[in-house]
Amino acid sequence: MIEAARRLFREKGYSATNVTDIIKEVGISQGTFYIYFDGKEAVFDAVAEAIVLEGYDVIKGIVTQEDLPVLEKIKRIMSYLMTLETAERWTDELAARRLRHMRDRVGVIGLDLYTPLVTDIIKQGVDEGLMHVLHPEATAAFFLAGTWAFLDVLKGNDVLSSEEWWESYLDFIVRLTGIEEKIALGIGGLEAPPSSDGD
Q1: Of 59, 60, 106, 136, which one is least surrounded by beta carbons within 10 A?
Q2: What's the pLDDT score for residue 110?
Q3: Nearest to 23 by CA among 50, 1, 6, 45
């Protein structure tokens, strides 16, 4: 049911998908559905958790590669997150005011899981002399909270283009983590995500 709901959210969007659609997609009875979920929002929570856990496994795999320099880890993680965000375009809906509470629920799951991983990256950056922060765990939490709050606008909006948002986001990373200016150009190799209009 979770995988079916995720497919439907991708194809139709979250708002346009209803419980009946999920039931038909899986080929089960309504009664069976309600044994596991009490409604569409509960399915959403399960889909969101599956996406976050999937991301955790990928990011942990990158973080634990001991021979990988810290800037390369950042590039690979951000590349993965941008690819995921593009694939799950239905999550754009969560930026809408009426669905913000649901977006926040996903953020809490991600913050709890990802903070230790990002903390390890920042500690590696400090050990390598590339980053200068007082408290790696707090810096990791600020980084994740800021990223989550603005991830959708990195694709561009009416205020700034995708490239402009991305440039500002990279500047945020550099300043937050105290990356030395001479090294910061190494992060600039990250590509901006696709704009919201598909260009």
Answers
A1: 60
A2: 81
A3: 1
